[in-house]
């Protein structure tokens, strides 16, 4: 597999008055195309910062982020917008659904930014929500809203899926369904999946596990025999 993501000497510093927080401290790693990657670490370790930098939602203080040979840290605002639209699918803890659109309309909204037709019903069926297609977000439970947001991210078939605690609001059965879908996208479609989580069990299913502590890489482990999501002991 070829390398699709590279972080080279990445620093991210936040300043508030005299207070300085080094959220990323000389971070270096690579991720290959189609890898299923789990990023582990305690709260405040820098996991979400890493994801936001990779997704073009934040900018580095210094260092390089190279995706598909392109230097993301050099992109201007328009280039970042195109990068996010064409390469990245985001799955956040917060659903960011449009309240006056149905579940189906929220998913098919992605048709505005990709050059192919999206069959929203098929995508909703993949997250077991086809029967809720005509419901609005306020009519859905938190877990159902999360599944709609996941369906929306998956619908545009991005190069990368960046997931911040993607099953945080889900029961264990639905969580397995979603994680199995993400793993299948990695295995069968070559989508690079990066998941930030506190759940160390998920590491057993990852191709690569990156552990972060205090904004630094603590360890990187390649899993030669990752388990299937459905085989994990939850």
From TrEMBL:
GO terms for cellular component: membrane protein complex. Pfam families: ABC_tran. PROSITE patterns: ABC_TRANSPORTER_1, ABC_TRANSPORTER_2. Signal peptide: none annotated. The keyword ATP-binding applies. It comes from the Archaea. Residues 5-232 form the ABC transporter domain. GO terms for molecular function: ATP binding; ATP hydrolysis activity; transmembrane transporter activity. Keywords: ATP-binding, Nucleotide-binding, Transport. Belongs to the ABC transporter superfamily. This is ABC transporter ATP-binding protein.
């Amino acid at each position: 597999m070829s390398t699709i993501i590279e972080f080279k000497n990445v620093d991210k510093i936040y300043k508030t008055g005299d207070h300085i927080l080094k959220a990323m401290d000389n971070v270096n790693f690579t991720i290959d195309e189609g890898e299923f990657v789990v990023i582990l670490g305690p709260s405040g370790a820098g996991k979400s910062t890493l994801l936001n930098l990779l997704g073009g939602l934040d900018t580095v203080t210094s260092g390089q982020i190279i995706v598909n040979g392109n230097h993301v840290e050099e992109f201007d605002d328009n280039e970042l917008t195109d990068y996010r639209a064409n390469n990245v699918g985001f799955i956040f803890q917060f659903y960011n659904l449009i309240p006056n659109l149905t579940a189906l309309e929220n998913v098919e909204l992605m048709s505005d930014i990709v050059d192919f037709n999206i069959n929203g019903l098929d995508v909703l069926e993949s997250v077991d929500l086809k029967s809720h297609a005509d419901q609005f977000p306020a009519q859905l439970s938190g877990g159902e809203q999360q599944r709609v947001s996941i369906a929306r991210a998956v619908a545009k078939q991005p190069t990368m899926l960046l997931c911040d605690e993607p099953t945080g609001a889900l029961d264990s059965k639905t969580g397995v369904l979603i994680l199995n879908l993400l793993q299948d996208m990695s295995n069968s479609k070559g989508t690079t999946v990066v998941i930030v989580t506190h759940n160390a069990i998920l590491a057993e299913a990852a191709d690569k596990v990156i552990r972060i502590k205090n904004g630094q890489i603590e360890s990187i482990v390649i899993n030669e025999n990752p388990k299937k999501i459905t085989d994990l002991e939850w």
